[in-house]
Structure formats: structure tokens, C-alpha cells
Amino acid sequence: MENQIKNKVSPVKSTGLSTFGGVFTPSILTILGVIMYLRFGWVVGNVGLLGSLIIVTLATSITFLTSLSLAAIATDQQVKIGGAYYMISRSLGIESGGAVGISLYLAQALSVSMYTVGFAESIVQVFPQLNEKLIAVAAILFVAGVALISAKAASRVQYFILAAIVISLISLIFGSPIESTEIELWGASSENSVPFWVVFAVFFPAVTGIDVGVNMSGDLKDASKSIPRGTFMAVGAGYIIYMVLPVILATRADSLSLIEDPMIMRRIAFWGDAILIGVWGATLSSALGSTMAAPRVLQALARDGVLPRSMARLGKGSGKENLPRMGTLFTLIFTVTAVLLGDLNMIAPVLTMFFLTAYGVLNISAGVENILKSPSFRPRFKVHWFFSLLGAAGCIGAMILINPWATLIAAIFVSAIFFWLKHRNLQKTWGGVERGILLSLIRSSLMRLGEVADPKNWRPHFLVLSGAPLSRWHLIAMANSFGQGKALMTVATVLTKQNINKKRLKDLERHTKEFLGKKSIYSLVHIVPAANPFIGAKTLIDHYGLGSLKPNTIILGDTREESHLPDYCDMISYFFRSQRNVMILDMEENYNANPKENIDLWWGGLKLNGALMIVMAHLLKRSLEWRDANLTIKMVVPNESAAIDAERNLADMVDKMRSTARYELIIAGNRKFPEILAESSREADLVFLGLKEPDDEYVDYYRNLQANTSSLKNKVFILSGENVSFDEVLF
Fold it and tell me: Angle at the Cα of 269 (from 264 to 275), degrees rounded to 5?
């Protein structure tokens, strides 16, 4: 395994941030930020009063539903560093959590760029001679410096900024119109405005502040209580403010003025400079909040081993507060690059896609947990799964309406990270819902599957009696070739050692499964103790399986010991009486190195073993190793006259079963079958032969069979014991 993820990080002493200081304040400062001051007038101008109220309601609804899901997960578990990433990864698993966590980090880091660009834009509006890019970079350096000092210090600074925002909003409320205007319900004309969903995409980052407080989870005194309370307070306060502001703006200026002047609020306000103080404080505080949040997500990703090994140092913390200083420096470089390459209107829609992706998965996580009702999922704050999935649908729907192509790119991006993490095969010590989902599906499928097999949907369920996997590897390799990932397969071993405890058996099963996985063979593994292999095999047949999903086809090797032959034949008889198909593989030691070009199948008719042999040969030819092999159905007839009818029947059968198999009729004359077999299949790379039904003289029969086929290289003996009409599988 590439990484072994364990929660070995010693718990860090909480900095004790309260609900107000740790969640509400950073969340509301992010909500009442750069979009409100510099783009909300543009929003109202483009879509009008009613359009603005609809956008605010839609966007806040998605955020509110996500807040409900977030509260449910946050009150179900101890939330540590990483906030939303931590919660998703501990719910949906490391791959889903990692894919969304990386998206969430990029969203937070881009937020810093957006806020500092907004700050610089507002400065240049007042001092046009200054360089916007340089101001933005200087602002990033400032907030990064504050974040590197202390989370508490950053929290205290935010109280002063919150006061400045309150003063600016009061000044705006007591302001006056800048021109005579009528309320425009739907904004400017189409030639002077942009489409509704483009406006929504620009506005949506204004209501994404909830994750800032969540990502401070490692610094909160009581995260499970503070996150829901602080988040709901911030979302509610933000919604009220954003529903009042369009009324103020729509009654104080016309649409074109709102669209063209980013600083329209300064002109409307009673004390214009209060707006400047507010916008500067809001943009810097929002940037500060995201600068504190993004490195903490990065820190959690690195600690969980999600990031490449070369980035492992980003998981380290510094000082008593466990500050992610390495992560902050990394984020600093990333945000400066984004500032130099983009502007506010370009960054905001990209940011929206990342946030909607993260929020959507967070909602799915809570919804799935609620549907599965796992015993471990007991949140203090209960939310019906419908609201969580409604929030997920809202996120996905908004993404598609904003930009279908961007949605596709976001889905590809997240999927690529998911499969990259899946390929790395990360191990974790916490559970995810994946197992719960699979168990629910298995239960439902087992209840519906029934006991009677439908021939048209028949598939083999192999039980491979391999012993030690290395000693009879050809059994496993051939079973895998027959199954091709479409059949259930269990590699079973009978241990004859005495006093083997359960823990030892589980360890052996785990090691065997890992060994098979390295060989790209995905199989169940089962090991049972028994006095001897024959008793153990019978025990497996009697007790292994679940409902109708019991092994229907037993694959085993031939016996080389004469003294074992009676027990061996008795075991085959037991399999047959238990209505199991039996496949005995007698292969050369260097089987894997031999060519795989010619398969001979000796035909005795559709009944008994014939149909099953052709089915298994057909499955084998689907495999990569045998797909180019020539399958020849061979049949012995006593004379020329019998050959005429036999050939007609064979040709008709091959045509009906839609096979590329050839057929060959051999006239026996005075020769016995063993002589014909040895001569005709001497060069075959694999030979299929049917076994007769077990009887009292089966030991002698099997001994003669071994002698008569000793000249053949690789053989598969097949005995059809299952109560299935295999001829219906063929035609």
C-alpha cells in the first residue's frame, strides 16, 4: 500500500474560540464582503429588484440546506482540523473526501485572491494612480502575515472590522437617492445587461462564508455546538441584509448607474467614507478568514496522506496553536499567482463551481448517512435526508444552469482526483458509508434474487480449492480466466494444523487477499480448519455462502496420491450430491508459459456434461489469454453412416449457439476412445472432457481416466451437478 493513514497525530490543545468569534464572525464577514460592496449594485442593475431577491433566495437556500447537512454531520462526530473535508472524508471515505477536499482548498485559496482583488479595485477607485495588481499582492502579504501570527489575533482583528461593516450599512440605510428613478423590477434592457445565471454565478460566492467557520473547527472550543449555531446565525443575518439591500439600491439609483459604478454605495450612503472603511475592512477580513481556513484544509489533506509524499511537510503545525505555517506559505504563492492572472469577474464564477461541488458532496454525504441509518450515525441535530438531497440537487442544478461545460470540467476534475486516490489504494482507520451502501444493496439483491436459477441469467460462482495459492496457482489463474470479473469467485484453503485461532485465520485471509490483489485477481478468500482437506472441502460446501449466493461450481486440482484416491472420489461424489458443478484441472507445471492456441472439447451430446462444457469453453475464450485460441468440438462416431446425421446435428448446434467453434467428426473404426483421444488431442493446449456421474465403482473409473489421459498436456474434467438446463444457456 502506498500510504498507511492513521490518526496518530496527537490531539492539539484547543485555542478555545467561541461560537461568535470562531464561527459567526468569520462567516458573516465573508458573507458581507467584496461581492456585497463592489458587485451587488451590478447584480441589482442587471436583474432588477425581483431578480435580485430571487437570486439571493436561491443562493441562500442552497447554502441553508448545506448548513443543515453540515450541522447534522458536525453534531455526529468530533470535528478536527480540516472542517468540511474532515467531515466528508470520515463519512464518504478518503477518496471522496480527498477529491472534494482538494476542490475546497482551491476554492478557499481562490477566495483570498478574489477578496484582495476586490480590495485593490476599491482602492484604485479612490486613488486611480495606483497599480491594482501591486495593491492586491501587498494585501495578500498582509493577511498572510496576520494569519501566521495567531488564530486568536486574527479573530480579535475581525471584531473591529465587523463594527466598521455595521457602521457602513447604517450609513447606507440613511443615505439618499443620487437621481430620480423608478423601481426597475427586472433590471436593464437585454442589450445593456447579462443573463440571469451569469449574474447568479458572480453573486453566489457572497453566500459561501459558512465553510470559513467550519474550516476553523480545529481552533474551536466546542466544534459540534459552535458550528451549527454560528453557521445558522451567519446565514440568517446574511439573508436578511441581502434581502434589504436590493430595495435600498433599486430606490436610490437606476439600472445603468448600478451596473456601471462599482462604488455606487459610496455615492448613495449618508457618509460615503464609511462605505470605503466597510469595503476595505470586509475584503481584508474575508481574505484573512480564507487565509486561515485554506491552509488548515491543506494541513488535514497532508496529514491524511491525500497529497503526494513530496507535500507531506504541509501537514506540520507550529507552536501551541498548531498553526499551518508551511500551508500558509504555499497558499500565499498560489493566491499571488491567481491575482496576477485574473480579475474579479473571472475569479468569482470559477470559485462558484468549486464551492457548489464541495457543497453538493457535503449534502450527499449527510443524505446517504441518513438513508442508511448506520448505528454509528447519531447526530444531535437531526435533518431528514430529503432536505440534504434537495440541497445536493440544488447545487448540481445551479452548476448546470450557470455553465454546463464548466460543470463537466468540474466533474472530470473531481473524478480524476477520486480515481487517482483510488489507484493509490490509501488505507484508513476510519469508516465510510461505502460499506453501508454496499451492504444495503447486497441485502436488497439477496432478498430479490430468489432460490431458483434462471438459465438465461446463469453465471458461475466459483469455489477454488487451491490450498496454498502459490502451490496451485494455475487453479486460480484459470478460474479468473473463466470468470473475467463477471463471476463471483472464492479462493478457499483448508488448514489441517491443530489449534489455529480465529485471529490467525483472519490474518491469513487478509494476506492471501492482498497477494491476489497484487496479481490483479479480485476474489473472496475463505480459510477453514479441518482434520483433513476432504472433510474441510465438504464443510465448505455445506456452510459457505449466503442465501442463494452459494458456490455452484467447484474448481480443484487432480490428486497425485494413490492413497488419497478413495477420499478424493468420495469428495467428488459429495459435491455432485450437493448439486454442485465440478471442474477438475490437471495442468502441467509450466502451464503459464505454454502456448494457448488450440482447445479441444470432446462432445457426447447436450445432456449430461456437454452443454456445461461448451458454456465454460465459451467463457474461457472471452479471456485475454485464450481469446485467439481455436475451439474444436470433437465427436467420435462408430461409422460413416452415423457421421452423416452427427455432422448435421453438430453444424445446426454450432449455428444456433452463435459460436465461432469448429467441429470435427472422427470415425472410430476398430479403435477405442482412449486411443483416439491420445492421438487426436496430443497437440492441444487444453482439452475438455466430461466425467460420468459418481457410482460405487467411481474410484476404479477415475483411476482409469487418469491413465487414459496421461499423454495429454492440460485437461479440464467437467461434471454437471447443478439443477440447471445448460442447453438453455447456450441457445
Answer: 75
3-class DSSP state of 190: helix
**Separation CA 695–CA 706 (nearest Å):** 17
Judge whether residue 350 has pLDDT over 80: no
DSSP string, 367-418: HHHHHHT-TT---SS---HHHHHHHHHHHHHHHHHH-HHHHHHHHHHHHHHH
The pLDDT, as a whole number, for residue 9 is 40
**Can you tell me the distance from the alpha carbon of 532 to that of 61, in angstroms, rounded to the nearest whole number?**
66
Closest listed residue to residue 491, CA positions, set 555, 586, 582, 400: 555
C-alpha cell at 602: 470432446
Mean of pLDDT values over 535-551 = 86
Would you state the pLDDT for residue 52?
Answer: 94
What are the cell numbers at 264?
Answer: 455606487
**Structural contact between residues 321 and 102, judged by C-beta atoms closer than 8 angstroms:** no
Q: How far apart are the C-alpha atoms of 344 and 121, rounded to whole Å?
A: 9
Return all residues near 671 (Cβ < 8 A) that are at least 6 apart: none
- The pTM (predicted TM-score) of the whole model is 0.66
- Quick one: pLDDT at residue 4? 44
* 585, 474 contact by CB (below 8 A): yes
Checking if the pLDDT of 11 tops 50, the result is no
In the chain, ranges of CATH 1.20.1740.10 domains: 19-433
Q: Which CATH architecture has domain 458-730?
A: 3-Layer(aba) Sandwich (3.40)
- Rounded CA gap, 308 and 668, in Å? 68
The 3-state secondary structure of 619-664 reads HHHCCCCCCCCEEEEEEEECCHHHHHHHHHHHHHHHHHCCCCCEEE
* Weakest mean pLDDT among 177-191, 250-264, 675-689: 177-191
- For 259-314, the pLDDT digits (tens) are 999 889 999 999 989 999 988 888 887 788 788 888 888 888 888 888 888 888 88
Are the CB atoms for 462 and 551 separated by under 8 Å? yes
Arithmetic mean of pLDDT over the chain: 83
CA-to-CA dists, residue 666 to 602, 674, 676, angstroms: 11, 13, 8
To the nearest 10 degrees (0 to 180), the angle between helices 385-402 and 40-74 is: 150
What proportion of the chain, given as a percentage, has pLDDT over 70?
A: 88
| pLDDT, tens only, 510-524 | 888 888 888 888 888
Rg (CA), the chain: 35
Residue that has been written with the C-alpha cell 427586472 in this structure = 186
Check: CB of residue 523 under 8 Å from CB of residue 476.
Answer: yes
Give the HSE-up count for residue 688: Cα atoms under 13 Å, Cβ half-sphere: 28
Residue range(s) of every CATH 3.40.50.12370 domain in the chain: 458-730
Find where cell 466598521 sits: 164
The answer to whether residues 371 and 65 touch, using CB atoms and an 8 Å cutoff, is no
Whether residue 533 contacts residue 467, with contact meaning beta carbons closer than 8 Å, is answered with yes
**Residue 568 pLDDT > 90, yes or no?**
yes
d(CA 538, CA 574): 7
For domain 19-433, give the CATH superfamily: Amino acid/polyamine transporter I (1.20.1740.10)
Q: Which amino acid is at 392?
A: A
Task: Give yes or no for a contact between 531 and 440, defined as CB atoms under 8 angstroms apart.
Answer: no
State the cell numbers at 9: 497525530
Spatial neighbors of 731 by CB under 8 A, at least 6 apart, are 656, 657
Burial of 509 (0-12, 13-18, 19+ CB in 10 A): middle
